[in-house]
Amino acid sequence: MRRVIFAAIVFLILGWRCAERHRVYFQYGEEVKPIGRVGDGNINFLWVRSLLAAPGKDFEVFDSSIVVSDLRNRLYLINEMGKIVKSIRLKGSVNGKVLINGEYAYFTTSGDRFRLIKLSLRNTGDKIEKKVYSVFEPVLVDSLLLVVSMDGKVYCMSKENLGVMWIRKLKNRVYFAPFSVDGMVYIIDFRGRLFSVEIPSGKLRKATDLPTMPETVLPVDDTLIVFGGRDGKLLLYNVTENRIRWMVKLHGRIVSKPLLKNGMLIVGTMADSIYMVDFKKGKVLDRIYIGEPVSTDMVGVGTVAIFGSLSRKLVCFDIIKKQVVWKCKLKGRVISNPLLFGDFLVVGCEYKYVYLFELR
In Å, how far from its chain's centre is CA 26? Predict the structure, then answer.
């Protein structure tokens, strides 16, 4: 009898947890209370959906659906109504961004299996895998895919069949995810050295020694790159001149990608502050204490910047008034960079939550 009771309790608990995993809360068709003002309109809560695990750091959009990965080795397509259109089981967790090109998604996985994967989001049976020990997202330049492994190997592959075109080797391990500027791919190693890789020739050269270990990178145009470091250093690097134009020391770690508005860099730090820095001269114009650590990239909507905080809040900051307009309490710390697509804003929180807001 005890065994029967114990089995019934276990069954009820597992059933409740399975139901909780994919619970979605709708407010369509109801009177929605606006969270706050954004420019000339409001931002409204639409729904929150729970996944199997915490969402990844970045979202993408495919055919009006949100592409999101989680830490339980799954890739989801979620539509604007909060319905999971597709749930794709993987054999490893997705690293960084999912790169979307046409109907195909390119990404690397780690954990149970280190792979570079090309996957059709329309027909999930159309998939190619290559064994690559990488924890960074790939970079696409024209028809070539560049992938960097943990041990410093740089692979150049065809985006069609993932065939290897050439391989280059760095002396040290790679520190930061590669990024492209004007057809060149840049890589940072664990000594803070910046390397450039010419595409398609594969010519590898050292560009410069960075005075900080970057946590975030903002390519401004074909010649200028902004780096934010874990020691609070913010600097502007000129690719053509191969030199650092200016550098300024801020208070607090910079993990949020700066926002460029009207010749000013809006920079958030983990020391509960937002700085306004002159883009040309690198001069700090103002520092505003907001009482919230800026833990995600900022999204610019008109004259406001929206970002996530580790104190479980979505924050809206007015750039003109230099003050926080509103804060919205969420179910967990914001760990995913907010993504603006159309009139919608999607945000991911720790544990397993994805929120969708509407700007109107």
Answer: 26
C-beta of residue 163 within 8 angstroms of C-beta of residue 143: no
Instruction: Output phi, psi for 203, to 5 deg.
Output: -65, 125
pTM above 0.70, yes or no: yes
Per-residue pLDDT tens for 18-53? 444 444 444 443 445 567 667 666 788 889 999 989
Q: How many CA atoms are closer than 13 Å to the CA of 31, on its beta-carbon side?
A: 0
Rounded to whole angstroms, the Cα distance separating 97 from 107 reads 7
Number of Cβ within a 10 Å radius of residue 305: 23
Torsion region of 342: left, alpha or beta (phi above 0 gives left; psi -120 to 50 gives alpha): left
DSSP class of residue 271 equals: T
Tell me how crowded residue 309 is: count the other CB atoms within 10 A of its CB: 22
Under DSSP, the state recorded for 242 is T
Would the CA dihedral through 147, 247, 321, 289 be positive or negative?
Answer: positive
Closest CA to 259 of 313, 314, 302: 302
- 190-233 pLDDT, tens per residue? 989 999 999 889 998 887 899 999 999 999 988 999 999 999 99
DSSP letters along 46-68, please?
EEEEE-SS-B-S--EEETTEEEE
The CA-atom distances, in angstroms, between 12 and each of 27, 52, 78, 134, 290 are 28, 18, 28, 41, 45
